[in-house]
Amino acid sequence: MFADRVAQLQRALDERAAQQLLRTPVTLEQYSGRVLTIAGQGYINFCGNDYLGLATEPQVLQAFADGASRYGAGSSGSPLVTGQHAVHQQLCQSLCDWLNVERVLLFSSGFAANQAMLQTLSQKTDTLLLDKLSHASLIDGALHSDAALKRFAHNDLDALEPLLRQTSQALVVTEGVFSMDGDSPDLAAMLALCQQYQAPLLLDDAHGLGVLGPQGKGTAAAQGIKQADIFCSMANFGKALGVGGAFIGGSKTVINYIEQFGRHYIYSTALPPPLCAAVLKSIELCRSESWRRDKLHSNIALFRHLAADLALLNSQTAIQGLVLGSSERALAVSQQLKQAGIWLSAIRPPTVPQGSARLRITLSAQHSEQDIHQLVQQLRQLV
Ligand SMILES: Cc1ncc(COP(=O)(O)O)c(C=O)c1O
Residue 1 above 80 pLDDT? Predict the structure, then answer.
């Protein structure tokens, strides 16, 4: 009965494979942050998001274990129906203190948080204005909302301005650090434009939190912007904080509204309490151990210095893009790097635009200078 449908699915899979676009997950036997062990072989990892090395920090692991003994493995309910434990409350408070926001809500993932932010805060008469390189979770959030969607050229305020002028009820959506290019918008100028046209600004700071600004407060703080001037922002706990889950932050009214009307929040099991205990410890270390950020930034500077003759994208963050063009080429270079003991997956369309398949090199505080020298030496030979 389903034969036609299954054949149709298989054709789509075959087509992806023919275009060199099939993705196959690898199974990690061990993860130490810096080194991945796959099929008994160790590789230096240059494609994770554990920028500060907190995913394997013993104090974070201990907090996870203690949290499980104290609160149980799971929250056992949605947050508004007995799923909220004291540790969720402590995590929310810690985020408010750290980031200077009035209120936050926790979500199971950054994907869910972005969907909730865009769908809940926009209405039928609104237009969501998204950067051309927005993350899939923002695009899907906008597509599933009641609002209209328009895109503006990447980080281009001259492209955003006419859209704001032509649109009576706009909300502007951008990222602090773009996930595939590693660059940032001029947020202060974007905010000024938004204020001029009375358009709320929504910010995804998944890759800025922990990495940028004093105490790792993120992109807005790094650019001298008051958190209160941003209508609503989100970031996740699965990147620099090394754990998983996410939050949305903003004024009391904005967050109270999402609490009442955000379907991804209301109808979803609250985060596991031990995970919240681990994130609390991660935040404490992220704030107090600035050596992690210092090391990360010196690794970024070393990489950019050594690789100055390669056609890197313009980024000062932990995400360094090297565009290779075709998916075949990106796959071939990635494969050759593996043979040299470096794990660096090729990023291909539709994650990035057609013709811009690349290596998305990510740096971490855990890399040694020797690791970075080895990477650049290999890249120079292969690219
Ligand atoms: C910019 C950006 N936003 C949102 C997400 C989604 O976050 P999560 O992985 O926690 O679902 C990601 C992660 O892939 C991301 O890079």
Answer: no
Catalytic option among 57, 126, 204, 205:
204
179 assigned to active site: yes
Q: Model pTM?
A: 0.96
Tally of helices (H runs) and strands (E runs) in the chain:
14, 14
Mapped onto helix, strand or coil, the DSSP state of residue 94 is: helix
Q: Does residue 181 have its Cβ closer than 6 Å to ligand 1?
A: no
Q: What is the pLDDT of residues 219-274, one digit of tens each?
A: 999 999 999 999 999 999 999 999 999 999 999 999 999 999 999 999 999 999 99
Overall average pLDDT of the 144-173 stretch: 97
Q: Does domain 58-288 have CATH number 3.30.200.20?
A: no
- Give CA separation, 270 vs 5, 265, 352, in Å: 36, 8, 32
32, 362 contact by CB (below 8 A): no
On the question of pLDDT at 8 being above 90, the answer is yes
> Does the CB atom of residue 175 touch ligand 1 within 6 A?
yes
In CATH, the number for domain 20-49+290-382 is 3.90.1150.10
**For the chain, what is the largest distance between any 2 Cα atoms, rounded to a whole number of angstroms?**
61
Q: Which atom of ligand 1 is nearest to the CA of 245?
A: 10
For range 272-285, the mean pLDDT:
98
Where are any strands of DSSP class E within 30-145? Answer: 30-31, 35-38, 41-45, 103-107, 127-131
Bridge partners for 362 per DSSP: 319
Residue spans of the domains in the chain: they are 20-49+290-382, 58-288
Ligand 1 atom showing the smallest separation from residue 236 Cα = 10
Rg (C-alpha) for the chain, rounded Å, is: 21
**Which of the residues 207, 217, 281, 295 is marked catalytic?**
207
Is residue 135 lining ligand 1, measured as CB closer than 6 Å? yes
From atom 7 of ligand 1, which residue's Cα is the shortest distance away?
110
User: Which distant-in-sequence residues (6+ apart) come within 8 Å of 35 by Cβ?
Assistant: 42, 43, 44, 45
**C-alpha 353 – ligand 1 centre gap (Å):** 18
Residue 344, token pair as written in the block: 């660096």
Structure tokens belonging to residue 168: 């009576």
Whether 75 lines ligand 1, by a CB cut-off of 6 Å, is: no
Query: Which one is catalytic: 239, 264, 295, 367?
Result: 239
Is the CB of 182 inside a 6 Å radius of any atom of ligand 1?
no
